[in-house]
Amino acid sequence: MWKYVYLTLLILPAWLNGNAQNQENPADNFAQHLQKYASDWNLTANDLMEFRVRDKYTSRHTGAKHIYLNQQYNGLDVYNAIVTLTLRPDGEPLSAFSRFVPELEHKIVGERPTMAAIDAVVAAFSEVGIEAEASDFVLSELREDKVIFRAEKFSRSDIPVELVYQPLQDGQIELAYDLSFDPESQLDYWSIRTSAIDGRVLDKVSWTVSCNLDDIPSHRHTQSCFSKRAEQGYSARGADGVVADNLHFGAKRLGQVNEESAYRVVPFPYESPIHGDFELVESPYDEEFSPLGWHSISPGDQPDYTTTRGNNVIAFVDRQGSGSPDISVDGGSNLVFDFPFDQDWEPEEYMEAAVTNLFYWNNILHDFSMAYGFDEAAGNFQVTNLTGQGQGNDPVQAISQSGANTGFNFNNATFSSPPDGNPGTMNMFVWTRNSADASLLTVEEPAEVAGSYETGTATFGASITEDPIIADVVIVNDGVGIVTDACEDIINSSEIAGNIALIDRGQCEFGAKVLNAEQSGAIAVIICNNRSGGIVNMAPGAVGDLVSIPSVFISQSDCNIIRAHAENGLKVRLQRPEIGGPDMYDASFDNGIIAHEFAHGISLRMTGGPSSSGCLSNSQNGNRSDGQQMGEAWSDFFTLITGMRAGDTRNTNRGVGNYVIRASTDARGIRSYPYNYNMDANPVTYYDTYDASVPHGVGHVFASMLWDLLWAMIDEYGFDPDWYRGTGGNNMAVQLVMDGLKIQPCNPGFVDGRDAILAADELLYDGANQCLIWSVFARRGLGFGAEQGNPMRVRDARESYELPPTCLPTVKIHKEMTPNIEAGDNIDVQLRLVSHKSENPTGVEIRDQIPENTSVIHESLPAGASVDGNEVVITVGELDFDQDLVFDYQLATDIDLFSKIILEEDNEDQASNRFIPGALVGNDFFELTTTDAFSGSQSWFAPNTNRTNDQSLTYTIPIEVEGEFPVLRVAHRYHTEDGTDGGLISVSNDGLVSQIDLGYAMFREDYPNRISGATFSQGDLKAFSGNSQDWVQTYADLSDFRGETLFLQFRFGSDNNVSMEGWYIDDFEVFEAHNYNSEVVVISDNGIEATAYAGGRGTIVEPQLPVSTEEPVVEHPSISLFPNPARDFLNIVLREMPAERNASLVITDVKGRQVDNRSISIEGSHQSEKIDVSGLPSGTYNISLVTNGSVWTERFIVVK
């Protein structure tokens, strides 16, 4: 064995050097194109020195060339570092997207492997739970660029291994072995990269997409489930946008094999047996797209097969998971596949009918997708590629009732799509009665809220059965932070025991919540959504497997109803209604799910090129739970378009999986909302990706946009019933989506997907639909200003509902002024004018008001400008389309006018005495640090750890708000996990009983980002999250609090996922601001065209201490208390107290009885104390500070 391992290791250096020296380099032809984009992509000349053409082909319907270039180092590919370059038919670039790594050479780790390839194979198998030894693998082939192993005991496929460079989460690029294999014991087809230095697994991607959609309890195969797989080898739209009733695919044709055939199926456009009846469909194949018919792999007069096998698909039933067809589904010499089906039968009673329907729909989807460009060159699934383009020998293996007899495989569907030349595999499972869509929660009392409530379910714990669970509902209390989240041990167990626990979502995993409730004696759990949104289903997390009681999830609005009546006569019943019909349904008749699965193969092959199947992984460091991957979106889109029925409108509810969960045709299916253009029915936007499940919830958002696009195009161009060769809006929309797949980059984000569709419109329709497309995406938050951030994450995105300026046919004026000046400094004013009107406005002039107490510096006026009274007038005349004009001038200001300081804090001398750190959750407190500061030497700092935290920092000096324009300015710097961890600034005007978030009042450097509702257990929040890069100053208008006394509080929250740096807070001031701003107006012969003010409240004059002739106010000793009322702790702030070593704090009740007495030492004029009052019963108390000869007393309340 050692000789074998050593031999493999010896080969590798030659492999490495040979690959570098003998590399064929047609990529040189594309280097000039890359150089045009290099600066935009921050790439150096060295970054572009090595790359290869990974894939290239020409789309037959456009003539566009699609080129996929892989960055290399020392002759080896950098994994998924792909440039997607699309050239117009004339050779000019249409678009280019880069995943090349900037400054690559400085990030390389390892240039020579120090371990053998076989060791990498063993490590990869171990990573997925398969324990193997090197001796289990046979070296099958040694090629110039890879070695190929076989292990028939463990893998259905060969195991190719090659050296690559793998990008890591920390930015380094490590030498690695890239290998793939299809385990005998699993459904996942794995693509894994292991370090060639130390053997650790660096990245893991499954080429198998599982579509249980996070919503239904399901099972995926483990090693015990299987033994071996088969070796097989114009407009018809009405005025209301109704789909016409004469839908069809291409006209019936007979292929060169003269194939006559018939199939009893639920045909297009019917999604399932609940959407339409079975029909005997004759010869449905299309001659152009399946010239060999559906039952041959070579030309000839007679079909090669009379079974459900052909060039595009091999379909069979495999209930045993044995790898062999259970039965032969044969249509005879006449190819008539007419088999009985009855919905009351169990699936094993209609296996022939199931395979027939599965075979038919896979072939339909092959022909359909080929009509829109998923052809041989693009990597489609076929045994024989008649054009000679692409790789053959890769039909879809479509397996019906996969593993149904094993007792493990149900409520799921999968599709495996390795690179072109390797067969795709579709597994359709049976779906159990427990997956049925049903209302599980019923309120029985009180009568005013009685009825059924929609629920989500858990994939852990006991199932809710037809045996009812009837009990009272009790709200949990864990006594810590958000006391209703059940993330800590529950303290009201005596009330919970024997009842149904009501728990709020957030702060910890679903499984942990339910387990805590179970350990407190709960017999079931209701989880409340803590933010607006649809129903979700609950994953177990780390401890969910220990749960043995049932749980359900309900919406925030429903929970508000239930919570209001909990512990006040509310009685509920958890019960699955009795459902008729068979125990199992077969997904082979859910044509929507079949289309969904097949579309995974389309999107995987067309994104990043046909030889790349890992370009829809979107993850960081192998974690697939956080990316913007839209594969589920394109799959749902295929479900929707192939199920459009006569009478459908934009407002028709469309679900996914309605048949298998036994729902009505207009139900939401296994999505949070039904697909519907009407945003009252389907309100999802880009913002919803923050807390959506990944990948299905995220995909639902993008698919909703694609569905809107289809209907917008139908409204514009009508509906054509010919899906193969039609010219209607429906055809155009599908073509946009399909070409977008070819154009978009490897591992795209939402913005990438949108931009690829916009580029496809330029290619297909000369950009005629740009503004229509923009309006569709902007409607759901993916507008002109949207940012996707890192496509490997979902929570760093920024939504925007804006259209690009060119889609707004108006005149625009933008005004900028110097943001800040010292009193007496000049102000720079800039005016920017542009028109996007179809007709040029004439007689245009700009009139910019001169702010009060300023004067124009005439020498600074641009040509054609003059002063008319209190206005600067600039004569423009005729304004051409997209003409961009910029005008600058200056204003002089009054040296005696400045902002006036009310309060300023520099966080230096005795800063700790003026603040109180606190914690609702966690122990990573705010602390003073000298690591970084805006000014001086120290600042407050909240670390962003990978632990759950909700920390606060309260400023104990009250702020008296006064003046016409009071402003808070805070200097801070943050670097946090974007979209998840972040900080808030709030004020309290009621003695810290409640807080008011200042986000709404911020007008400079405001919250940049939405934040997950789980962070602070509150939805629809923005926060300081992400990376500010440097110190920034946030301004907030305090005018709403004029005349009030405020306490300032900072709050920082984090989850238990990623650790980053944290949040620094330094200087802040409250001042009565003096600012300069004025309106600019654009006038033409048609009247007023546009108006604007400078943003950020124009120019603000820096604050100074006001000069006063009054006697200074003498501060008197005082004490203040917060929060008041108090529950667990009471904070006492002492001000202007004389130093006293022997002072005491005495608490007495309303009868004067002493309940607490403690000694303190007063060491400065300002300090704070914290007293535990959790042991005091509810009531009113006095607290007295007793010093040598003086007593100060305040009253407080304790509530429980």
Describe the structure.
By secondary structure, this protein is α+β, with helices and mostly antiparallel strands. It folds into eight domains: about 30-105, Nuclear Transport Factor 2, Chain: A; about 110-205, Nuclear Transport Factor 2, Chain: A; about 260-405, Elastase, domain 1, CATH 3.10.170; about 440-575, Glucose Oxidase, domain 1, CATH 3.50.30.30; about 615-800, Neutral Protease, domain 2 (Orthogonal Bundle); about 810-895 and about 1075-1100, Immunoglobulin-like (Sandwich); about 900-1075, Jelly Rolls; about 1120-1200, Immunoglobulin-like, CATH 2.60.40. An eight-stranded mixed sheet has the order 22-21-28-24-25-26-27-23, with helices on both faces. Strands 38, 40, 41, 44, 47, 50, 52 and 57 form an eight-stranded mixed sheet that branches. Helix 8 crosses helix 9 (about 630-640).
Q: What does the radius of gyration come to?
A: 34 Å
CA-CA gap between termini: 72 Å
CATH architecture of the largest domain: Orthogonal Bundle
Mean pLDDT: 89
Strand content: 25-35%
**What is the fold named in CATH at topology level of the largest domain?**
Neutral Protease, domain 2
* SS field, number of helical segments: 13
Number of domains: 8
